């Protein structure tokens, strides 16, 4: 198979981890007889420095001309520490999602035996955890208008809006995923308080009739946050709105021991985007210490998206073997255990591929 991949490394550790993901994809292509072509493009703070725009038109064009996008991270302290900055790196990420029509973000969370002792929770609680969170990605409070402050600067406001069409399309995605897994779907909202959440719940109940084989439960977001810690193995597929999904998936990311382990896929009307869920980690940028596994596993999701299931599973097994062999970065190293560099971990994974 031949694939054209847009490579958007972004900021902070983004260039280092995407380099390891690219090398792993190339090793996989070599083994299985595929051909992957890459086109690099700037995004985030790196793009602001070059063009003044966090998502330049040329970057958008390269994404549209590609089969998929492999993305690193966005964020820079000089913008994080300046709330008055008129242009911010994160605006590029939001615009990219909206411009590419990426409305469904998939974040798989699985706790493997090789990492169960790294979890902050007891092994008997996290053992067997294996679920996917489907997060609506282009609506809600992050995109709602009006948004801003009053003239005096003493009052700020954000607007949360959803349409039935926006809710339906992401719910259909979640129902289909649940049907291919253990047939249990959890809809997370705040319907006891928010009108948008009531629209989510009404829409989910109506669509549930089209998927009679799937068991559906409804949880308020505060209860869902508690249950993710109390009994994470209960969940199969979780679907929720944009901001709730952003918060809950970051909470869920530590179940397996490190934020550096979670990959994600964003699907929609255009080319799909694959990225680790961690941030740009600027303190580690250029130091060769960041965990590349989430980026490498995002590459596995990319392959799986195009039907290359054996290739994707080969990468996942290589990552698991690497962890069991003790080749891990500092975020996963046990006390007193030697930690490896980003490139050492990448090399070990490729050797296993």
What would the keywords be for this entry?
2 domains; globular; alpha/beta; single chain; ten-stranded mixed sheet; 13 helices; Isopropylmalate Dehydrogenase
Please identify, by name, the CATH architecture of the largest domain. 3-Layer(aba) Sandwich
Name the average pLDDT: 95
Share in β-strands: 15-25%
Q: Name the helix and strand elements from N-terminus to C-terminus, one letter apiece.
A: EHEHHEHHEHEEEHEHEHEHEEHHH
Distance between the termini: 18 Å
Strand segment count = 12
Structural class: alpha/beta
For CATH, the homologous superfamily of the largest domain is named as Isopropylmalate Dehydrogenase
Total tally of structural domains: 2
- List low-pLDDT spans: none
- Figure out the total of helices: 13
**Taking Cα atoms only, what radius of gyration do you get, to the nearest Å?**
20 Å
Shape: globular
Described by strand count, sense and barrel closure, the largest sheet is: 10 strands, mixed
Work out the helicity level: 40-55%
CATH topology of the largest domain: Isopropylmalate Dehydrogenase
CATH class of the largest domain: Alpha Beta
Sheet with the most strands: spatial strand order: 2-1-3-12-11-4-5-10-8-9
């Amino acid at each position: 198979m031949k694939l054209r991949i847009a490579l958007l490394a972004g900021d902070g550790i983004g260039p280092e981890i995407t380099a390891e993901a690219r090398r792993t994809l190339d090793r996989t292509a070599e083994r299985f007889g595929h051909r992957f072509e890459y086109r690099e493009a700037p995004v985030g703070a790196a793009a602001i420095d070059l063009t003044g725009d966090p998502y330049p038109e040329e970057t958008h064009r390269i994404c549209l001309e590609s089969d998929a996008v492999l993305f690193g991270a966005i964020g820079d302290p000089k913008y994080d520490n300046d709330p008055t900055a008129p242009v911010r790196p994160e605006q590029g990420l939001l615009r990219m999602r909206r411009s590419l029509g990426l409305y469904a973000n998939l974040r798989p969370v699985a706790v493997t035996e090789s990492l169960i002792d790294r979890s902050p929770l007891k092994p008997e609680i996290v053992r067997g955890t294996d679920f996917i969170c489907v997060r609506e990605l282009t609506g809600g409070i992050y995109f709602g208008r009006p948004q801003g402050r009053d003239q005096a600067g003493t009052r700020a406001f954000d607007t949360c809006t959803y349409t039935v069409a926006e809710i339906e399309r992401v719910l259909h995605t979640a129902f289909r995923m649940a049907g291919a897994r253990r047939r249990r779907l959890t809809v997370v909202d705040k319907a006891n308080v928010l009108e948008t959440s009531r629209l989510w719940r009404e829409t989910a109940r109506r669509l549930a009739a089209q998927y009679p084989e799937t068991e559906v439960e409804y949880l308020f977001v505060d209860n869902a946050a508690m249950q993710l810690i109390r009994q994470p193995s209960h969940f199969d597929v979780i679907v929720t709105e944009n901001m709730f999904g952003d918060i809950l998936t970051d909470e869920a990311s530590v179940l397996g021991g490190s934020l550096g382990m979670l990959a994600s896929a964003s699907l929609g009307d255009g080319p799909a985007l694959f990225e680790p869920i961690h941030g740009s980690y600027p303190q580690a940028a250029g130091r060769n210490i960041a965990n590349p596994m989430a980026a490498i596993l995002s590459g596995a999701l990319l392959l799986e998206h195009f039907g290359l299931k054996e290739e994707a599973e080969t990468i996942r097994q290589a990552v698991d073997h690497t962890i069991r062999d003790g080749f891990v970065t500092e975020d996963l190293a046990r006390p007193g255990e030697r930690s490896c560099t980003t490139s050492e971990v990448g090399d070990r994974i490729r050797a296993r591929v």
